MFS transporter
Amino acid sequence: MNSPVRVISFVNAGHFIDHYAMLIFAAAVIIMGPALGMAYSELLPYATPGFIAFGAGSLLTGWLGDRWSRRHMMLIFFVGIGASMISVGFVQTPVQLGAALLAIGIFASIYHPVGTAMIVSYAERLGREMGINGVWGNLGVASSALVTGVIGQYLGWRFAFIIPGIVTILIGLAFAMLVVHEDRKGSKQAAAQARVAKQDMWRVVLSLLIVVIAISTTFNAVTVALPKLFAERLADLTKSPALLGVIAACVYVFGAMTQYTIGRLLDRYSLKTVALPLSFMLAPFLYLAASLNNLPLIVVSIGIVMGAFGQVTVNDAMVGKYTSEEWRSRAYAVRYFIGFTAAGASVGLVAWLYEQGGFVTMLHAFAGLCLLAIAAAIILPREIRTPVAA
């Protein structure tokens, strides 16, 4: 059998890479625009097909993970997304750029339904491992803004894609040598820590559907728009792409800490107890951010990422707690298909709202959308929890 620590370590690395790869363009687009002779609002929509594939592809990849091999799918993920990142560094036209970003999205769609299911299968305590896994994903988001800003400033935007692509392929080769395929049918389901009454399951499904659409759309919009928002609103502090990347990375660190904390709380309390107070964070912070600049904007942005990343951990735990081992990749596939398809639409929506009224209009619109997270938390039923060892 595979070592749980080794498998979870590789899967956590995959979470880092997945979010890193999907957000390189969001940070690089600021310097790519002048190089390609295109405005921000013109260039950004070329990422839309990749973000849609990020969600739509999860239905097939989740099915393959359950029916074929999660290990083999993760190997394809590492090698495929690495090669796709490298290909972006060699594009010459916007059409080629869109095709390369689409390839990143297709391979990135493997991770969440397959990798998250692997975490649940090997985890001894679901909340803790979900929280730690979320931290790795968040660090990928933060590092993407930071490293892309630094590499882009000193080596050019093409190397911001090529270098992480090479590193990812090397990690994939290590994964191939150290993790083997194994049949986990009938294995212990470490996630079976909670259940709800059968007649209340519709409330879980409805709550998950609402919150996934609202939070995934907002999460993606915020992570895509934050580099540009900081470039505009922090001009009095700095205009350096590298320093703006450092600031964005520091903001995302608070999101990482939140995910770890939320994960630990989910091992001790019910989903509703954790989700309800958390659901009140995003809407007011997004509304406030619309009119702020410089240091106040940074402070409020910390609140935004804490709310958004905390909600993602809750959403993943909902699926992990209530699904069986043999269906888990497919359950996550549906969750991420809905979430990432909605998130894919947010890229075009960000560009359109920015054209209509700048970041004021965009942030107000997403603040209104996040009110749905409160309704979703209220809908959640009470849990009947199964005690777990400390």
Observations:
- The chain has a mean pLDDT of 83.
- The longest strand covers residues 194-195.
- The CA atoms of residues 46 and 94 lie 7 Å apart.
